Amino acid sequence: MTAEDSAFAVLGVLGDPVRRRLYRHVAAAPDEVGRDAAAEAVGISRSLAAFHLDKLVEAGLLAVSFRRLSGRTGPGAGRPAKVYRRAEGEHAVSVPPRSYDAAGRLLAEVVENAGLDRELQAAAKAAGAAHPDAVADDLVEVLRARGYQPFWDGETLRLRNCPFHALAEDFPALVCGMNLGLLEGLAPEQWSPTMDPCPGGCCVALSKTKNH
């Protein structure tokens, strides 16, 4: 099976709408998700949620571990529960095949070698400001639509996913700076994006300014 065939097979698992909802819920969650919580989140039975969650694990889209959800230990604490989290890695299919990733790496390498980091950050900020689709009430939805998978950590809005993950691994300073500039332009003035990496997620976090 070719890499393209494997990607088609993996993404084909998400053809079921219940599995899509389960995957989105688990992938966006800041912590591991148990079967009961996943079932309640998408409005299905626990047994049906367990079936679909394990299909997502088989496809490599989710990873599984075991822990006691009650927090108790020792005799009488019960058996560890099966919990799920987003699996590492990416799956993408283009029909017909394209190679935007290779072009992105080449462009990033040229920009980094030329020392154009500040120019890239300024361009990213201008690009974000040019599309003011975020206002105070729906910034979370805008970030979610752009693939950031935002979640609240106290009063801080953290981003579970980095839409530029592959490039950020190869060019961390360049791409994270670009991402910060983009979010500075995108976010309304009452929000303050800062470099504050989320473990396994995005390098930027957002919080309300003191005046708001």
Distance between the termini: 55 Å
Helix content: 40-55%
Strand content: 15-25%
What low-confidence regions span 5 or more consecutive residues with pLDDT below 50? none
> What's the overall geometry?
globular
Number of helices: 9
Write the layout of secondary structure elements.
Blueprint lengths: L2 H10 L4 H12 L4 E2 H8 L3 H13 L3 E6 L13 E6 L13 H14 L3 H13 L9 H7 L4 E4 L2 E4 L5 H6 L1 H15 L4 E5 L8 E5 L4
Antiparallel strand pairs: 1-3, 2-3, 4-5, 5-7, 6-7
Helix pairs in contact: 2-3, 2-4, 3-4, 6-9
Task: Produce a short descriptive summary.
Pfam families: HTH_20. This protein is of the alpha+beta class. The protein is 46% helix and 15% strand.
Walkthrough of the structure:
With 212 residues, this protein is α+β, with helices and mostly antiparallel strands. It has 2 domains: 84 residues, Orthogonal Bundle (Arc Repressor Mutant, subunit A), CATH 1.10.10.10; 109 residues, no CATH class. 46% of the residues lie in helices and 15% in strands. The strands form 2 sheets. A 4-stranded antiparallel sheet has the order 4-5-7-6. A hairpin with a 2-residue loop joins strand 4 and strand 5. Helix 2 packs across helix 3, helix 3 crosses helix 4 and helix 6 packs parallel to helix 9. The N and C termini lie far apart (55 Å). The mean pLDDT is 87. This is Helix-turn-helix domain-containing protein. InterPro entries: ArsR-like_HTH, WH-like_DNA-bd_sf, WH_DNA-bd_sf.
Please name the defining characteristics of this protein.
four-stranded antiparallel sheet; 212 residues; three-stranded antiparallel sheet; 9 helices; alpha+beta; single chain; Arc Repressor Mutant, subunit A; 2 domains
